[in-house]
């Protein structure tokens, strides 16, 4: 029987398959978004990539303040915020920047995320006009570094049980407590610190030069080694009444800041996974065993295909959430969806890429083990796998299960 149906396929030449963009996602991005992405990619290639393995090996981020100033000059710090010297870009543009930063290293993206999505966002959303004018322009330029103090030694997933306190003493506040795992802490000029008061959880803008404030560096990390991670110690830190964030009352305020940071992680984790995938693809094409490149073996091709599927599905998810955020419709449960999926899949991609590289996969001559170790931290900060799973579980069932 002859098929008489007309051929509805457009008679146009299809573009060639791009192994670096197999789903042609670039076609979904605006010229401005592509320009932001390419600018950040070049910055990382020129200023970070040549040094990052050595920094990771030495567990240092030398010249962190100079690096922040360079990023400020590019408009990367608080780039998705409006006014006060901030670039005011779209959420998608910010996400693409996070992707490229983390394709270089998670610690570099963390510096930018904590500065913009935690410390600056808290001041921008909840601060007084005086606080905004004092800190945001300098932070946007990289002239002042910020950190965000919520997690404590005994309270991570349950910040509502924090022990850090702020008590009234006349017109002043007195802060006492400790915070842990604080990115940028030892180089920060200002810390946004959350404390328990008689009126509930409140946020405070704390200049790090305040008497009683210290931020000892944390050592012996096997992850995020090219990142400044600190403890914050507040021992009778006296602050004026104007130090309190007037718009932040209750635990919802710091959690909203975490949601901003989680959004950046949705994109950034894709960058780490993409870097590992590209390293595996390049290596497989040049590593010869049994007289042929290992890319020609079926098991290796299966790994490369599976890694490609997961990374580019994660990219589509990040882009979808970014478009929703720009439209003002993105919910926190959807951010949990993205963070849970994308970090988990990126980590699995890194582990698979490590097997493609064999013994070389554990060498810092390649980026794979560095990304893999970093993502072990990204998997649990800004909400563990368990917490984001339960957020989705509650959204699906209507039943909160956080307390067993």
UniProtKB/TrEMBL annotation:
Start and end residues of each Acyl-CoA dehydrogenase/oxidase N-terminal domain: 30-143
Family classification: Belongs to the acyl-CoA dehydrogenase family.
Keywords: FAD, Flavoprotein, Oxidoreductase, Transit peptide
Name of a matching Pfam family: Acyl-CoA_dh_1
Name of the protein in question: Acyl-CoA dehydrogenase family protein
Start and end residues of each Acyl-CoA dehydrogenase/oxidase C-terminal domain: 250-396
Keyword field contains Oxidoreductase: yes
Lineage of producing organism: Bacteria, Bacillati, Actinomycetota, Actinomycetes, Streptosporangiales
Cofactors named for this entry: FAD
Source species: Actinomadura sediminis
Acyl-CoA oxidase/dehydrogenase middle domain sequence ranges: 147-237
UniProt entry tagged with the keyword Oxidoreductase: yes
């Amino acid at each position: 029987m002859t098929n008489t149906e007309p051929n509805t396929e457009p008679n146009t030449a299809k573009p060639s398959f791009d192994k670096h963009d197999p789903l042609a996602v670039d076609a979904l991005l605006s010229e401005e978004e592509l320009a932001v992405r390419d600018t950040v990619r070049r910055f990382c290639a020129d200023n970070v990539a040549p040094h990052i393995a050595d920094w990771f090996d030495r567990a240092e981020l030398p010249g962190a303040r100079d690096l922040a100033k360079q990023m400020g000059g590019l408009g990367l710090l608080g780039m998705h915020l409006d006014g006060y010297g901030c670039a005011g870009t779209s959420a998608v543009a910010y996400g693409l920047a996070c992707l490229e930063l983390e394709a270089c290293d998670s610690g570099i993206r963390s510096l930018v995320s904590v500065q913009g999505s935690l410390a600056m966002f808290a001041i921008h959303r909840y601060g007084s006009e005086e606080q905004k004018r004092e800190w945001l322009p300098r932070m946007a330029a990289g002239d002042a570094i910020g950190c965000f103090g919520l997690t404590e030694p005994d309270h991570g997933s349950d910040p509502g049980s924090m022990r850090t306190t702020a008590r009234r003493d006349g017109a002043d506040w007195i802060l006492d407590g400790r915070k842990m795992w604080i990115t940028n802490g030892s180089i920060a000029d200002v810390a946004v610190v959350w404390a328990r008061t008689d009126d509930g959880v409140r946020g405070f803008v704390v200049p790090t030069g305040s008497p009683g404030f210290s931020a000892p560096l944390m050592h012996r990390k096997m992850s995020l080694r090219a990142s400044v991670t600190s403890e914050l110690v507040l021992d009778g830190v006296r602050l004026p009444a104007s130090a309190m964030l007037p718009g932040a009352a209750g635990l919802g305020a710091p959690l909203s800041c975490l949601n901003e940071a989680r959004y950046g992680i949705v994109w950034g984790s894709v960058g780490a996974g993409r870097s590992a995938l590209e390293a595996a693809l390049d290596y497989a094409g040049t590593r010869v065993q049994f007289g042929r490149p290992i890319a020609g073996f079926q098991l290796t091709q299966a790994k490369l295909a599976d890694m490609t599927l997961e990374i580019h599905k994660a990219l589509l998810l990040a882009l979808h959430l970014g478009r929703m955020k720009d439209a003002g419709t993105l919910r926190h449960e959807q951010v949990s969806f993205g963070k849970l999926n994308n970090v988990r899949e990126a980590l699995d991609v890194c582990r698979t890429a490590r097997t493609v590289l064999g013994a070389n996969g554990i060498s810092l001559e390649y980026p794979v083990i560095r990304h893999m170790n970093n993502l072990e931290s990204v998997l649990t900060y800004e909400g563990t796998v368990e917490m984001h799973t339960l957020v989705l579980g509650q959204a699906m069932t209507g039943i909160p299960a956080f307390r067993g």
